[in-house]
Amino acid sequence: MFDLLRILSPVLHPVGFVWTVTVVLAVIAWRRGHSRIAQLAALAITITWVLAQPFTVHLLFAPLERPWVHHTVDQVPTVDAIVVLGGGWRPSASDFVGLDLTPAGDRWITGLELVRRGVARHLVVGGDDSPRDPAQPSTPDSDRLRTWLELWNPGRATLHTLGPVPNTRAEAVRTRELAQRMGWKHLALVTSALHLSRAVDAFEAQGLTVHPVACDFQILTSPTPTRSFRVLPDEESLALFTLGWHEWLGHTAYRAFGFLRSPPVPPTPATPVSAGLPAPQPPQRTSEK
Questions:
Q1: Tens-digit pLDDT profile for residues 155-171
Q2: Which residues pair with 159 in a beta bridge?
Q3: What structural domains and CATH numbers belong to the chain?
Q4: C-alpha angle 45/50/53, rounded to 5°?
């Protein structure tokens, strides 16, 4: 009984159910002579099946995580500050300190672990941009994270927020401004492994020296990740494809808009050089007698 439920479970999930119904309708359309409709349905069925397979996700997006397999909490040197990118939490009135950890919540946990290990005395968090009703003022995410930091007390660390930032590039710009004010030279950059390539490029484009710290691995979750196929579309694989596709599109867009290029350095005023001759002196006024 349980084996039968396990086999039928993908069919009962939304993606598998819609895919199966589409297959049935395509067969009916073909048998009734509606070949064009059946061909279009077959194309949609094939594309959905291919995109929702573990081997497709591994082939296309494992290269985004592979460079960062050895850039984890165990390889981080002592730095001036730890920067944890947003996306790992969201407001929730019913959860601990008013925050719910998202699937990328490993970012925040990894930041706390680096604080516990004494990697830095400053912890910077981004993504403080939770939707709020202007008529009902709410506590910023950074204040809730500060409460969390005080309660868990992993070590002595000062929490800084980047304020409302809509994307990774804005986080990089705000971090550069904060680092210049604080005099920081070396930063530990914490984010999901899929997102780390784009994040490192965006931060280095701002002239920042970062030590990448990968977490939240989604594809290379074991030494021998699965590359098998499923008879029915796999919902988890389709969700991972969406994450990987988002990162690929984001990196392509950042490169197209020039967000991965270093900002122009303001020119320093040039001092006139006169081939070793002394600089001309202004004429002196003489009083007439």
A1: 888 999 998 888 999 99
A2: 123
A3: 2-51 (no CATH), 69-218 (3.40.50.620)
A4: 125
Mean pLDDT value across residues 221-242: 81
Q: How far apart are CA 20 and CA 48, in angstroms?
A: 11
CB 81, CB 184: distance < 8 Å: yes
Question: How far from 241 is each of 45, 88, 196, CA to CA, in Å?
Answer: 16, 19, 17
Report residue 274 as tokens. Answer: 């006169």
Bridge partners, 191 (sequence order): 214
Three-state DSSP at 82 gives: strand
Identity (one letter) of the amino acid at 237? S
- SS3 of 136, please? strand
Task: Please answer whether residues 217 and 61 qualify as being in contact, where contact means their C-beta atoms are separated by less than 8 angstroms.
Answer: no
Question: Could you tell me the CA-to-CA distances from 250 to 20, 260, 287 in Å, in that order?
Answer: 32, 11, 72
Segment among 36-40, 145-149, 170-174, 278-282 with least mean pLDDT: 278-282
- The per-type count for the chain, helices as H runs and strands as E runs, is 9, 7
Residue with tokens 């049935």: 24
